[in-house]
Amino acid sequence: MRANTDRTAALDFGELADHYDAGRIAQTPQYVSRTVARLGTSASGRLLEVGAGTGQLTGALLAAGSDVVAVEPAQRLAERLEQNYRSYGASGQLRICTQLFETLQPADFEPFEQIWSSDAWHWIDPAAGYRLAAELLAPGGLLICSWRYPVLTDVDLQARLNAVYSRLSPDLIRDPEAHVAELEPLQEQGRREVSESGHMTTIDHWTEEHLMDISVESYAELQLSFAQIAALSTGQRGQLAESILDVAGPGRVGVSLAIWQYTVASRPADR
Fold this sequence. Notes:
Strand order of the largest sheet: 3-2-1-4-5-7-6
Shape: globular
Number of strands: 7
Strand content: 25-35%
Radius of gyration: 18 Å
Largest sheet: 7 strands, mixed
Distance between the termini: 22 Å
Structural class: alpha/beta
Oligomer: single chain
Number of helices: 10
């Protein structure tokens, strides 16, 4: 999905490793099992994960029995990923490559049965990414990319937080009434991008919705985990966190999120 045409900030997540690890929501083993069931495959083979972060999808893939090569170019995120799944690294089930996906050399790897990416493929240069994915996949292999869009179910709270974001970080503003509809053109554009690459063909795409309750503190950490936050000073980040807690915290144990998850699966066009 062409959700981001400015990829210069892809490595900035390293500045946000603590927020990222504390705030980003983990994918569940159930999501992985539902996805492979829909696609008529399994997740128990050799997989490549692109943009692994600190392990939000990695853990679910490992739990499914996958042998995972996880690509994470931000050094501090990769270090946290290694810490979080040290036992899998020691057993050889997890290998971490701290480099840009576009710099991988297919000759260095046996073909992968699947390539997975969660909330990260938009950081990949499409001019190189789809070609490389096709070269890295085994015959019949799949590229499975997903994105999650969380928005507060409490419309009044979202409006009050939007007032905070308008002053401190406008990119965090969300409209609960139009959030998903605004994303549909980007998703369609992304599917065209796959086809126009000449290297991959979309075979399925779908959207799931679920509700999740998280603590106010976790919500604040989630908001501080996005790439644009890296441009803020430490003091500005602290002010943003305090303002979120001031607005969302009093009298609340937690907040409820509606999470829309969009998944698109493609395979090499010439196989």
